[in-house]
TrEMBL record:
<dbReference type="Pfam" id="PF02567">
    <property type="entry name" value="PhzC-PhzF"/>
</dbReference>
<protein>
    <submittedName>
        <fullName>PhzF family phenazine biosynthesis protein</fullName>
    </submittedName>
</protein>
<dbReference type="InterPro" id="IPR003719">
    <property type="entry name" value="Phenazine_PhzF-like"/>
</dbReference>
Amino acid sequence: MTDYDVLRVFCGPSGGYGNELGVVREGSVLPERSDRQELAAKLGFSETVFVDDPERGVIDIYTPTRRLPFAGHPCVGTAWLLDVPELVTPAGVVGVRLDGEFSWIEARAEWAPPHTLRRYASAAEVDALEVPPPGERSETGVPSDEVRGLYAWAWEDEAAGRVRARAFPGRAGGTEEDEATGAAALLLTDQLGRALNITQGRGSQILTAPQPHGWVEVGGRVFLER
């Protein structure tokens, strides 16, 4: 089996929760995309990262079913692991900064995989949602095979920018519910145009902040699981 690290990204204040991420530091051991896709499917994480150049931060991201040009929690986790000033993804160069217990990336909303952002009236309504069947995880009118996740959210405290959210990957997603979704948080921040403090899943925390010229910062805590 190829060696890989397991991180938890966007952990809560006590260090719990977070979304697991697999990182293959020596991407050269699996240079072919088909082999990378096979390993990502076998590992079963929502995303697996292959590092092609640890000094320059060149990375390649896969879900269990497809390759992604960019994804939020893989970039935050890998940035923390490699401790580099930037990451190079197929979508573009992702800025990185480490600030105390938080690791931050800076990216653009158009790089993020599409999500349906659906607002609910209260956090309690979001908490009460059942996981929808794969073909029903996006708005009516979107084809059932569309690779689009549903991001359900509500204000917990609008004045303070506190949001409650849950994410359900689209038909091609590898999990029934995503514990912490940086790309969707990026899209929501771009849409609302303000900094957010998001509690997602069982208790993960994602921080965001809009930046000039269409950029958005996404940050959170990262822990090495194994």
